Amino acid sequence: MNGIRLYWRFLAASVRAQMQFPGSFLMLLISQALATSGEFVGIWALFRHFGQIKGWTFPEVAVFYAVINMSFSITEVTARGFDIFGPQFVKTGNFDRLLLRPRSTPLQLLGHECRLTRFDRFLQGAVVLVVAAQFVHLDLGVATIALLLATIAGGVALFAGIMILQATLSFWTIESLEVANTLTYGGVEASQYPLDVYVPWFRKFLIFVVPLACVGYFPVVRILGHHDSLGAPAWLCSVSSLMGFLFLAVALRVWRIGIRHYCSTGS
Amino acid sequence: MAAVAGSLRSYRSVFAARFMLMLQYRAAAAAGFVTQCWWGIIKVMVFAAFYHGAAARQPLSFQQTVAYVWLGQAFLMLMPWWGDPEITEMVRSGNVSYERLRPLDTYFFWYARALAWISARMVPRAALMFAMVALLVPLVGLRQWGLAPPPSPRAAALFVAGLLMAVLLSGAILMLINLLVVVLVSDRGPSLLATQTVTLLSGILVPLPFFPGWMRTFLFLQPCAGLADIPFRIYSGNLAGRLALAGLVQMAVWITALIAIGRRLTERVMSRLEVQGG
Amino acid sequence: MPQIRVENLSKTYRVSERRPGAWGAVQGLFARRYRLVHALKHISFSLERGELLGFIGPNGAGKSTTIKILSGILEPLSGRCEIDGLTPWRDRIRHVARIGVVFGQRTQLWWDLPVIDGFDLLRDIYRVPDSEYRRTRDEMIGLMRLERLLEQPVRQLSLGQRMRCEIAAAMLHRPALLFLDEPTIGLDAPSKLAVREFVKTLNRKQGVTVILTTHDMHDIEALAERVIVIGNGVILADKPFALLRAEVLTERRLFADFVGAAPALEIPGAVVRSRDGNSIELSFDPAIISVPRLIESISSTYELADVHVEQPQIEEVIARFYDLHGASEA
Which tens digit of pLDDT belongs to each residue from B70-113? Predict the structure, then answer.
């Protein structure tokens, strides 16, 4: 039973567990959807007041918003195990149980829980994208769709990497895990606006340190058919989402170091 | 009289105990600080970009907006986003009714703990944040992005008053959320709606003056405005003189009302638990 | 070739200390204080295939540290350990595929899933071939009488039912070595008996090597031939349980009911522990005065209604042993 099949089994089990109470699940989904839309209301209000930001209009910014939220939501739904890793596994000692199974721990954590109720963020992003696409006259050809999918995939990988790093942190301290929210929720927040809104040093951070711009700004600029005002060539914009996968690979390496530490200090 | 003094002392030690406990979590405070700096910086940059091509007259000046953002981060712990985790835990383990064994009024007992929880989380981060944006940022030459001091001693005094009342207000709202948690025997539902609702209504998401005219009246008058909007605008002088005092009075009214409602409801819920053996 | 070989195993932890009081709390914001805890000091022992070892010791003695090292989730400071030719913490995945672990306090099954679904998931995790799995599964279900529990979600089971499912679950991949960490804790009497029976069958009939950690001395009495006592990080005893008991407490108890009020007895070699109404409790050393002689010396003078002789409670034996070696709770 290789890893992928095992993951599907885990997923099925998790979905089954959640669907045991369909009424409560539906209620949570709806209240979640209401809750998440608050964020978008904020952006709408600001644009209603100011009209534009550094030349970008509301529908254009809406596309940035949609893409990054769709990427993050997929990670949010699937990587729940890493999200709650500190309190649920390290603090309680339940991680020992994972170590006692002859499987890789990331795989087990991925399969731990599939947080379906967070799926509303994806739906919201999709709806916003479809509506905004009308206003910006998006060319929905094969190339654009492919780029969109690649961008979202890269975003999923990047956010997964961030969550894995956050989980690794809990091997050392269970307390300061909030930091990673800076990069996940804060990262989504930052990527909702085009990069040229920010000052140069921050842009560099978003490109080279935590490559959110590579899975958000650059590809979306290409999708919108604009030219990057910062001078990046078009081909670069198309492939930059690969950085997300690179980040993920690094995160997994750090995770292994974290496990070594856990096994030598005990819990 | 002695009884009141006695119970005040009990509430005080309850407060102190929880405060002390929360101080332990120093790594959490440091992490929270980093998170909030990030959010503050992003928001300030976004606003700077918005103001860049905007008309001169705005409901809040850029400096006032910057102050709003930084104060929002500094006092983020004021937001009654989740139920008090101790209460949530009690509900989960089914131990809520044991609270009635204590010779204290349940509402004020929980209220004291809630206030401690809020202020203990707030004080370290607020202090750090103030140090950074009021002192460091101007030092580094980014004066425009730092937190400017209040325009007058009077504004500062009113702000402090508003801040203390915001803590009381937050506690009162938190108590209502606790009740939801107890009644629904779950903290997920209340938390979700509470988080976004409070974030929106307090002005933390977007300062209330920026909302369209038809929403503004309602937004200015509702209770959550006292959590952020009113005190922050008093700080930067946007709400001054009579308007500032009116804002504080509004907060006081809401505090009293919410405490009264909360206390009534708590008694009802707790006695129902006694009957059911919850 | 022993299945398990442990040589000079040592482990030290760093524990952070919290300072008391308000000033201490503020200080704690800036600098942490640590102290070193020597959980294990040069432990050595070995275990043959098919043995059932009881692992006992006061709290904090180093039992769970040893179990964690043996199961591969903790790395020791120094020393060697080999189980079936593998070093547990180094060859983790291969090692854990061959062992089963049951924690008394925690479940490895999925809380919201029916028991049988949890079993199936374990089959996938341990990569057990289908036919083999079905055979083992049915065997375990039969042995532990789990038929009626299979469709229920784990969270609906009582503690006793859950423990039976736990042990069955741990055996699904047919490990040669089974670790049981407090398996009877919190169980009612019938469940305890059921669990002990099960473990005995696994060990005596199927040859599974078992290492049992427990505070319940009746578990030890029922199951373990060999016992290792750990205290303060060192092995205090490693011998058959009967020998341990004989060494520590040779005394016996005699309970006598008299016709009429219990007299004030004075018999050399016997000490009156309590006297209440018609009954009297004596403790004596059978080496000094034998049981027949004692009964005779009482009944020759007084009229006895009833007599019975007991060994002291196991807990007393063990508590006395800890005391003798200064191994009180850490």
Answer: 999 999 888 887 777 787 777 777 777 777 777 777 888 889 88
Burial B29-58 (b: 16+ CB within 10 A, else e): bbbbbbbbbbbbbbbbbbbbbbbeebeeeb
In this prediction, the residues of chain C whose per-residue pLDDT falls under 50 are none
Q: What is the bridge-based pairing of β-strands C33-47 and C4-17?
A: antiparallel
Residue that is written with structure tokens 């750990």 in the block = C230
Q: Is the pLDDT of residue A229 over 70?
A: yes
The CATH-assigned architecture of domain C249-324 is 2-Layer Sandwich (3.30)
Predicted complex ipTM: 0.84
Chain B CB contacts of A52 below 8 Å: 53
* Three-class SS state of B57: coil
C25-68, pLDDT tens digit by residue? 666 656 667 788 888 999 999 999 999 999 988 887 888 889 99
- Minimal CA–CA distance to A190: which of B211, B34, B38? B38
Percent of chain A whose predicted confidence (pLDDT) is above 70: 98
Interface test with B, best of C23, C29, C32 (most B CBs within 10 A): C29
Task: Please report, for residues A81, A85, A162, A173, C155, the alpha-carbon distance to residue A90 in angstroms, rounded to integers and kept in the order given.
Answer: 12, 7, 18, 10, 22
Does any CB of chain C come closer than 8 Å to the CB of residue A103?
Answer: yes
In terms of pLDDT, which residue wins out, A183 or B71? B71
Find the length of chain C.
330
User: Which chain A residue lies closest to B28 (C-alpha atoms)?
Assistant: A176
Helix, strand, coil proportions of chain C in percent (round to 5)? 35, 30, 35
Contacts of B26 in chain C (CB under 8 A): 28-30
Domain boundaries, chain C: 4-246, 249-324
Cβ of B20 within 8 Å of Cβ of C22? The answer is: yes
Angle between helix B85-93 and helix B106-130 axes, rounded to 10 deg? 140
Tell me which CATH code domain C4-246 carries: 3.40.50.300
| pLDDT > 70: percent of chain B | 87
Domain range summary for chain B, segments of one domain joined by +: 2-276
